[in-house]
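Figure 3 (text version): structure tokens given as input.
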């Protein structure tokens, strides 16, 4: 019974955090605004300490990586090796800390830049 209550509380916390981090801009705006670098920084900065943020950060990063490989038809401009995915939140936070101008750029552009710079494919042009 306790595990059901704990899971219910965790789901509530995760959904609340997701809603808070996902809401950017005016709620009455007619267009959907995409996430920017500041949103992924907030998610990934607390990933080491808060389990819900870790899940959100890794899920966002994994979704981007999957989409990049799918839409790039297997020719993504970055190559990840075993263990690299676990390092991504820290790599992303460190990069954003040294590139504050990227906080206002679209999240996809930020991730592409970071992944290409940090995880360039070796031996491929």
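Below: residues designed for each position.
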């Amino acid at each position: 019974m306790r595990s059901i209550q704990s899971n219910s509380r965790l789901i509530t916390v995760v959904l609340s955090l997701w809603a808070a981090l996902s809401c950017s801009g005016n709620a009455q705006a007619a267009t959907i605004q995409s996430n920017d670098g500041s949103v992924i920084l907030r998610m990934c900065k607390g990933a080491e300490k808060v389990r819900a943020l870790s899940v959100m950060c890794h899920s966002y990063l994994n979704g981007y990586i999957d989409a990049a490989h799918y839409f790039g038809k297997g020719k993504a401009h970055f190559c990840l090796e075993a263990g690299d995915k676990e390092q991504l939140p820290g790599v992303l936070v460190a990069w954003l800390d040294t590139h504050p101008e990227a906080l206002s750029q679209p999240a996809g552009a930020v991730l592409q830049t970071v992944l290409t710079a940090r995880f360039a494919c070796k031996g491929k042009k």
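The domain at 34-125 is CATH 1.10.890 (10k-s Protein, Hypothetical Protein A; Chain A).
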